[in-house]
Amino acid sequence: MALFTSQGYDATSLRQIADRLGFTKAALYYHFPAKEHLVIELTRPWLDAISNLIALNQSAPGMDEGTRRRRLIEDYIDIVLAHHAVLRFLTQDAAATKHPDVGRRALTLVLALQDALLGPDADDAERIRVGCAIGAVHSTAMMDESTLAAARPIIVSVALGVLGLEQSASSAS
Amino acid sequence: MALFTSQGYDATSLRQIADRLGFTKAALYYHFPAKEHLVIELTRPWLDAISNLIALNQSAPGMDEGTRRRRLIEDYIDIVLAHHAVLRFLTQDAAATKHPDVGRRALTLVLALQDALLGPDADDAERIRVGCAIGAVHSTAMMDESTLAAARPIIVSVALGVLGLEQSASSAS
DNA sequence: GTCTATAGGCAGATAGAC
DNA sequence: GTCTATCTGCCTATAGAC
Question: Domain B39-163 is of which CATH architecture?
Fold first, then answer.
């Protein structure tokens, strides 16, 4: 992950990875059938987490719309913060972005999240605002791990503000 | 640019570029000394525009802090919208991100913009908010050109809101 | 499970004719 | 300015010994 993130997927060779891990390229192929499976497995936990989040959200019972959206964006922020390294990699790497099981899947999931954050009858302006909110959340990919710990409440406040869901109390997850 | 954006820099070969342009690899090398110069020239206008913006902002005379920041973020939004294709490419491609004259320069410039959007005595929380605002602006990279035309006022409103610079009237640039 | 050795391909870049 | 032909190198992936 460190190599992929610092150099990009295409620019990172199996030789470099094997050297870092202390064995040879051939040994890598005993554990993974191809290079792309390395990045699939590295990103799967994050993708599964989002997939889960959306599934749970859809099967939610009759719940107030405002709190539903608030919980959704807050939970997404927690996922993004928990998988910081994955987001940093994915938002930067075009090669990963193009892969069906990685970037394409990520795009589909984020678009689904975007839809879930909208009501069924939202206009283009609201779509753009939601896109901005997600962009603000994803800006954490650029931050270093140290400032990230204290960042959560601020990110939550910004995202809720952009979405028009401000609320002063009860934001613990 | 189309090939770089859709496939990534590393994954795009000079053969593909030459084929698309209707001549051969060797002819490319008459006009550009190396592959990396293609991406340098493609991104230079955007980078120069930001560089200019920051330089002009620094040499501004005694001006109200609020309007200074408002103008700065609005002008940046205009640059981002005008160079939409460049931003889309740069935010996605790790290979470009690593190049000193492209991604590194872009990072330096965006950080300088971030500093310029802060007062000299801002805390970490304010830093994060500014980062979120820029993230929201950069989310336009994900939008398609059609919805982009109508997006400007919404982006401006979101960014000013996150920065705490809301103002109802006089937002024409 | 890890190794050495190598196959097979395509990349970026150059030489030199026209 | 564009071409054909080619060099050199590294890449992913595989074969087969241990």
Answer: Orthogonal Bundle (1.10)
**What is the per-residue pLDDT across B5-61, written as a single tens digit (0 to 9) for each?**
999 999 999 999 999 999 999 999 999 999 999 999 999 999 999 999 999 999 987
Contact A92/B95, CB-based, under 8 Å?
A: no
Closest nucleotide to B28 by C1' from CA:
D2
Let me know: does A122 contact B154? Beta carbons within 8 Å.
no
Q: Is B81 on the interface with A (CB under 8 A)?
A: no
Is there a contact between A129 and B158 if contact means CB atoms under 8 Å apart? yes
Q: For domain A41-163, which architecture applies? A: Orthogonal Bundle (1.10)
CA distance B67 to B75: 12
Distance from residue B22's CA to nucleotide D1's C1', rounded to whole Å? 13
Tens-place pLDDT, residues A30-53: 999 999 999 999 999 999 999 999
Pick from B150, B171, B44: nearest CA to B102: B44
